[in-house]
Amino acid sequence: MTKKLRPHQEEARDGAVRLLTLPASGLVPPEGLRCQIRAATWPGKSLTAVHVAGRLHAERPEREPHRPGHDR
């Protein structure tokens, strides 16, 4: 069971997901997709990051894993 986020954590999660979602073109910028969650000690940054990862994983389309020697 995943712990529910507080309002400030939800806001941070939504902002991070927005920054880490691929653009409509599907092309990753040369500098990559990165962000930081900055907050004081103990506001739940790690829990927020877990929710960000879960949201990004849920939104990512399923892909067949790459098998070496089987180039597409």
The average pLDDT value, as a whole number, equals 88
Largest sheet, in brief, is: none
The helix count comes to: 2
Derived structural class: mainly alpha
**Helix fraction bin:** 40-55%
How many runs of DSSP E, i.e. beta strands?
0
Shape designation: elongated
Rg (C-alpha, Å): 15 Å
Spell the H/E element sequence. HH
Give unreliable regions as ranges.
Answer: none
The N- to C-terminal Cα distance equals: 39 Å
Oligomeric grouping of the chains: single chain
Percentage of β-strand residues: under 5%
Structural commentary:
- The chain is 40% helix and 0% strand.
- With 72 residues, the protein is mostly helical.
- The chain is elongated, with a radius of gyration of 15 Å.
- The protein starts with 6 loop residues before the first helix and ends in a 13-residue tail after the last helix.
- The mean pLDDT is 88.
Topology:
Blueprint: H1 7-20, H2 45-59
Helix pairs in contact: 1-2
Quick tags:
single chain; 2 helices; mainly alpha; 72 residues
Concise account of the structure shown:
The protein is an all-alpha fold and 72 residues long.
